[in-house]
Specification:
By secondary structure, this protein is mostly helical. It has one domain: Hypothetical protein af1432, CATH 1.10.3210.10. It is globular. The termini are far apart. InterPro entries: MESH1 (IPR052194). Pfam families: HD_4. It comes from Gemmata massiliana.
Length: about 170
């Protein structure tokens, strides 16, 4: 399952770049998958597939039906929970997304933590303003994830909080 998800993610994100306009975007989803497996220690093939696909609905032409058909209901449900409704105005979209993260399955919380971990780790190339924005966004999402936090993801949360603290310290003069 993760191999097929990696191939789909690579095709779906093939022309996209990270914020530095140089790094292929797909490297982000591959790193998120690696964080889920090797940093957080989750080896469920469905979670690994969802990690690889976590940005496909939001950022590509792949839709939830495609994911259901190829990877099943659990993967599609988790990817959908990680997808912001881009039709909404920014502030409303973020509020709805945070509310959904607060009540999400533990797997979704773990996947979002891996996403945050990678974004924080990859923020070194950003301007100080970009790093501050990344830190503020991470803090906002962590506040949502922390609500009703299951035991399975407590250690992952601690790792992300440590990474966020390191970034925030680097921004302090």
């Amino acid at each position: 399952m993760p191999f097929e998800a990696a191939a789909l993610a690579a095709r779906a994100h093939q022309h996209q770049k990270r914020k530095d306009n140089q790094t292929p975007y797909v490297s982000h989803v591959f790193r998120v998958c690696l964080v889920v497996r090797h940093t957080f220690g989750f080896d469920d093939p469905k979670m690994l597939a969802a990690a690889l696909l976590h940005d496909t609905i939001e950022d590509t032409t792949i839709d939830c039906d495609d994911i259901i058909e190829r990877f099943g209901g659990d993967v599609a449900k988790w990817v959908a929970a990680l997808t912001k409704d881009m039709r909404l105005p920014h502030d409303e979209r973020e509020a709805v997304y945070a509310k959904e993260l607060a009540t999400a399955d533990w797997q979704v919380k773990a996947l979002k933590l891996a996403d945050l971990y990678d974004n924080l780790s990859d923020s070194k190339h950003l301007s100080p303003g970009g790093r501050r924005k990344t830190a503020a966004k991470a803090r906002f999402y962590l506040d949502a994830i922390r609500q009703a936090l299951p035991d399975q993801v407590r250690s992952a949360l601690a790792l992300v909080e440590q990474r966020l603290t390191e970034l925030e310290r680097s921004l302090t003069p």
